[in-house]
Design brief:
single chain, 231 residues, alpha/beta, D-Maltodextrin-Binding Protein, domain 2, 2 domains, seven-stranded mixed β-sheet, five-stranded mixed β-sheet, 9 helices, 12 strands, 32% strand, elongated, binds adenosine-5'-triphosphate, binds 1-O-pyrophosphono-5-O-phosphono-alpha-D-ribofuranose, histidine biosynthesis, ATP_PRibTrfase_CS, glycosyltransferase
Length: 231
């Protein structure tokens, strides 16, 4: 059986992901020319590599089109319903750290916690004639965090495809749920993270699609062992 590993073809995770595999003795060579989106692994004839974007990798792991992938935990948990049933995080790779957070305008001086935000959400319609609007591209994580974990039901998600931190200033939403690493984009947009507003601490992960055919497959186990051995 051929085992397919999906690696980031571009973006912030590409170089670190390749470096981990190199250290693990998994040397990837492009099939065809350097711009090819397929690769092979020297000495592992039953392994092939697909180069995809980080979010495509999450999707392909979810539908089982690839066996392994390197992508951010945020993209796995946002992209896949019941992620733990469909994939297994084999290793956390120690790069690509970023937190998915709830951030509100700094001038909301009396809002520091999710409980405070819950109070704001309850009063919002009476005060403003509409529900509290949250800009995010993480609608699954946001719904789970607000509704299931914090019991906040009165809000509306405004889907954001980019520049989410600008939404409160432009008036398209009141608060945001987005990724942050250094915090500088939030500060530049006069937003603050709530003290208990970390939805997920994400990093790059080595992830396996749960497939029955993997049971007792020597190559599957050898790949997991090789990656874990260099962490
Ligand atoms: N400062 C950051 N901003 C955004 N994402 C970050 C940051 N630091 C780490 N990441 C992580 O990087 C991953 C996204 O990587 P990247 O932006 O390279 O994806 P991409 O290849 O652009 O995907 P796509 O084009 O499909 O959106 C996410 O898992 C995210 O958590
Ligand atoms: O906390 P910080 O260090 O400021 O990083 C967070 C920002 O970085 C990312 O945007 P980026 O400009 O990389 O563009 P992208 O969303 O297209 O990846 C992300 O979407 C945040 O806006």
């Amino acid at each position: 059986m051929t085992i397919t590993i999906a690696l980031p073809s571009k973006g912030r995770m590409k170089d670190d992901a390749s470096a981990i595999f190199e250290r693990a003795g998994i040397r990837i060579t492009a099939v065809g020319n350097d711009r090819s989106y397929r690769g092979r692994v020297e000495g592992w004839d039953d392994v092939e590599v697909a180069f995809l974007s980080a979010s495509e990798i999450s999707r392909e792991l979810g539908n089982g089109t690839v066996d392994f992938g390197v992508t951010g935990e945020d993209l796995i948990r946002e992209g896949l319903a019941e992620a733990d049933k469909r994939v297994e995080v084999c290793a956390r790779l120690g790069f690509g750290h970023a937190d998915v957070v709830v951030a509100v305008p700094e001038i909301w001086l009396d809002v520091d916690t999710m409980a405070d935000l819950g109070d704001v959400a309850s009063d919002f319609r009476a005060r403003h004639g509409r529900r509290l609007a949250i800009a995010t591209k993480y609608w699954r994580l946001t719904q789970r965090f607000f509704s299931s974990q914090h019991g906040i039901q009165l809000y509306r998600i405004v889907e954001s495809l980019g520049a989410t931190e600008g939404a409160p200033a432009s008036g398209s939403a009141d608060i945001i749920v987005d990724i942050t690493s250094t915090g500088s984009t939030l500060r530049a947009n006069n937003l603050k993270v709530l003290s208990d507003g970390v939805v997920l601490r994400s990093e790059a992960c080595f992830v396996r699609a749960r497939k029955e055919s993997h049971a007792n497959d020597a190559t599957v186990q050898r790949l997991i062992d090789a990656v874990r051995s260099v962490l």
